[in-house]
Amino acid sequence: MKKITLFTIIALTAACISATAQNKKGMKKVLFVVTSHDKLGNTGEKTGFWTEELAAPYYELLDKGVIIDIATPLGGQPPIDPKSEDPSAATEDTKRFDADTELLAKLKNTHKLADVKESDYDAVFYPGGHGPLWDLAIDKNSSALIEAFYTNNKPVAFVCHSPAVLKNVKVNGEFLVNGKKVTGFSNTEEAAVGLTDVVPFLLEDALQANGATYSKTGDWQPYAVEDGLLITGQNPASSKLVAEKLLNQLNSKK
């Protein structure tokens, strides 16, 4: 009897391990690409990624069973924009972020962008903050990665300033945004934060210069645009909207 019981336990344990492995195999996997740049032009101030724009999409996807990896141009800890840590910018997601030891440890050990492969993921998402305007907008590894996702029929999603990383991305010799409906941090929002003359380029203007059909809603209001595989959000308040649209696309793919 004892032998039979032991055998049953072993068999059930093996079955559970197998089922867990199968479930993980079937789970969607998304790559988050985050800036490594921490200098706000020549102001002497710091910048980086905006906490809300990483936290809200991260938890929206994680809580639905999506596996998430994080990569940066330099690897390791990405800089956080100090203004996004101000109590006035706090949300339920940023409070969860502040207490999330697992995510904070993951951020300390981000993958180096040059080492990640599109084939390992189902989609890519770029949080914003001003940092991407300086590094990811001209990063060739980033541009190649986005092109690879897009040409392999995988969603590419961006919010606030991160559509700036599309500035040099081309598919079949044409700018990816050419003829596409997009949004992103608006000129009026940039003026409102007093950085029009600090940023290397205005995102709204750059998207239009590359042939995009740019649209926006009121400053600081949630707004996201979906054009095929391309998903963009206007500002921090739009980050969860972008994640929802991305999740819908992931769920629609077998």
Total strands: 11
Oligomerization category of the chains in this entry: single chain
Q: Classify the beta-strand content into a percent band.
A: 5-15%
Shape: globular
**SSE string:** HEHEHHEEHEEEEHHEEEH
Total helices: the number is: 8
- Estimate the mean pLDDT confidence: 92
Low-confidence stretches: 13-23
Q: Span from first to last CA?
A: 45 Å
For the largest beta-sheet, the strand count, sense and barrel status come to: 7 strands, mixed
Question: Radius of gyration in whole Å, from Cα?
Answer: 20 Å
Query: How would you classify the helix and strand content by structural class?
Result: alpha/beta
The helical percent reads: 25-40%
Structure description:
With 254 residues, this protein is of the alpha/beta class. A 7-stranded mixed beta sheet has the order 3-2-1-4-5-11-10, sandwiched between helices. Strands 6-7 form a two-stranded antiparallel ribbon. Strand 6 (170-171) and strand 7 (174-175) form a beta hairpin. It has helices at residues 2-26, 51-62, 92-99, 101-108, 140-151, 187-192, 203-209, 239-252, and strands at residues 29-33, 67-72, 111-112, 123-126, 156-159, 170-171, 174-175, 181-182, 213-214, 224-227, 230-233.
Features:
254 residues, globular
Write a brief caption for the model.
The protein has 254 residues and is of the alpha/beta class.
What is the fold's blueprint, element by element?
Layout: H1 2-26, E1 29-33, H2 51-62, E2 67-72, H3 92-99, H4 101-108, E3 111-112, E4 123-126, H5 140-151, E5 156-159, E6 170-171, E7 174-175, E8 181-182, H6 187-192, H7 203-209, E9 213-214, E10 224-227, E11 230-233, H8 239-252
Parallel strand pairs: 1-2, 1-4, 2-3, 4-5, 5-11, 8-9
Antiparallel strand pairs: 6-7, 10-11
Helix pairs in contact: 2-3, 2-8
